[in-house]
Amino acid sequence: MLSVVFMMIFMFFMSFLNRSFWMVQNLIFLLTFIFMVKFSSINYFGQISYYFGIDMISYGLILLSFWICGLMLMASEKVYLLNNYKNLFLFMIMFLLLMLILTFSSMSMFMFYLFFEASLIPTLFLILGWGYQPERLQAGVYLLFYTLLASLPLLIGIFYILSEKNSLNFSILNNEIFMNMNMLYLSLILAFLVKMPMFLVHLWLPKAHVEAPVSGSMILAGILLKLGGYGLLRMFSLLQISGVKYNFWWISISLVGGVLISLICLRQTDLKALIAYSSVAHMGIVLSGLLTMTYWGITGSYALMIAHGLCSSGLFCLANISYERMGSRSLLINKGLLNFMPTLSLWWFLLCSGNMAAPPTLNLLGEISLLNSIVSWSWVSMIMLAGLSFFSAAYSLYLFAYSQHGKVYSGISFFSVGSVREFLLLMLHWLPLNMLILKSNFCMLWI
């Protein structure tokens, strides 16, 4: 693992060389395969040192981080062609990737907090520096204050655990359970609920997505939302007693919120806003399953986190491909794309069907496990889950039908062919999304 981190540190310097853009991208993919082969048989929390190590939960999310960061560079050809501070852009992505890998492999709670917060800085710079809307400053402030304010109680909670147990090592604390510590329970999970984001504290996400460049949207949807789920997976071994008592509040808010957000999706006219709100609905069901603290729920939430990272990132790429040609993200203008870009319509169909958890995508495995866990937790939840599943299909079909069918707006009648780079980019999202279900025991290995 140390070899992977060192290779990444040397790639920092490479990002400032001229004509190194595609070289760095290829090296990230090479690093992905090195990591995949080298750490494929891990079943314990170890491998580096006292402070850093990986187990099966970390393994999947680090692999996803590598993959999405490589695809981010592939999607950002415009930054390269316009020479829009491309070396700084490369540096920001490499720095973000390093922070994410260190977050997912931290064995100490404080180190986890440190890198968890540090991953916010390059994301903020990506939105402020390469976003293309005038409101990006406001979106950056939203992102910063929502996440920082919710994270302060987490730091206080970590210091309290240190004073009580004299250790912050996850593998040592796994055997500890805090009894009836209501304030500690709230302080340890609040930061992760905002990061997921849970309904009611989700307002920063659509804003950040709409203002971010395509690379910012991909990393936000692909990895940064998963930091919340990962944090909860780690923390709930300490909070089992309080969790049994209070988790129903968050599950109720998430399920009701998921249905409401799905209805909001049905009246969006901005492509990116629709995909961003659909992320909130998906994360609502992930959060609900995770908080049931059952085997089905935890493994299902992990599977859906990986699946959503690939599917949502692919949809943002598609929205960006349409935006680059049409100059707008409005569904009123992006009509009739079947006439305009017939080669891309298949990709819209495949990724929209993935978004509504159609077989054979990994989303299906995750959603079946989550439905199983939430219904076994309380049969009343079936009402909201039925609504959530139905409207999830409804807004995915709405997105596909409105963008692909209908008369072409504003007299655009010429035929546009996608580039090989764009098709490769979409294939690299779709292929793992459908192939991973063949290795579905991967999500069950670590428990």
Automatic annotation (TrEMBL):
Top-level taxon of origin: Eukaryota
Residue ranges annotated for the NADH:quinone oxidoreductase/Mrp antiporter transmembrane domain, each copy included: 106-391
GO biological process terms on file: ATP synthesis coupled electron transport; electron transport coupled proton transport
Q: Cellular location of this protein?
A: Mitochondrion membrane
Q: Does the keyword Transmembrane apply?
A: yes
A Gene Ontology term for the protein's cellular component? mitochondrial membrane
Q: What is this protein called?
A: NADH-ubiquinone oxidoreductase chain 4
- Source organism: Anopheles pseudotibiamaculatus
| Name of the gene this protein is made from | ND4
